Amino acid sequence: MNQDRIARELNTSKIPVREALRELEDQGLVYFVPNRGFVVKETSYAEMIECFKLRQMLELFAVRESVLLSTPEYVAQIEAIIDEFETLTDPMVSSHWYLKLHLALYAPTGMEQLREIITRAHTVAHRYTHIYMCLTQDEAETQEEHRAILEAYRRKDVNLTVRLM
């Protein structure tokens, strides 16, 4: 990716473009090659499997830790996020919404390192989810599934919440 060209197209200086590319590098989506610039990281089956295994392990741990710490305020925030999804019309926004929902489910833990690791795992895994959905014409989870998770969470049923996740 040519930083100069991107800056021109966005009508900005190279500095914010370089910062954004560094952030994408931190997220594992691009890498820097000296004398060449930033390059988009290729997808791989091994990376996909690793990402989804990591997400499963981290997110199930996070929800186990979170359910019993939850308060009615957290439950209300989660419910509002689920309600908000009903109004979305842009499928490109859905990945941000899914991350927002998942992070809200884990918020009661207060574990910032876990939050950051899950955010990175979501970012990398989203590439593969998007590819899968385009190739298979499959659809994401339904709101009924999200509402079932919310109900188990609300009842503080750790085992059911984990199973539904």
Automatic annotation (TrEMBL):
<dbReference type="InterPro" id="IPR036388">
    <property type="entry name" value="WH-like_DNA-bd_sf"/>
</dbReference>
<dbReference type="Pfam" id="PF07729">
    <property type="entry name" value="FCD"/>
</dbReference>
<dbReference type="Pfam" id="PF00392">
    <property type="entry name" value="GntR"/>
</dbReference>
<keyword id="KW-0804">Transcription</keyword>
<dbReference type="InterPro" id="IPR000524">
    <property type="entry name" value="Tscrpt_reg_HTH_GntR"/>
</dbReference>
<keyword id="KW-0238">DNA-binding</keyword>
<dbReference type="InterPro" id="IPR011711">
    <property type="entry name" value="GntR_C"/>
</dbReference>
<dbReference type="InterPro" id="IPR036390">
    <property type="entry name" value="WH_DNA-bd_sf"/>
</dbReference>
<dbReference type="InterPro" id="IPR008920">
    <property type="entry name" value="TF_FadR/GntR_C"/>
</dbReference>
<keyword id="KW-0805">Transcription regulation</keyword>
<feature type="domain" description="HTH gntR-type">
    <location>
        <begin position="1"/>
        <end position="43"/>
    </location>
</feature>
<protein>
    <submittedName>
        <fullName>GntR family transcriptional regulator</fullName>
    </submittedName>
</protein>
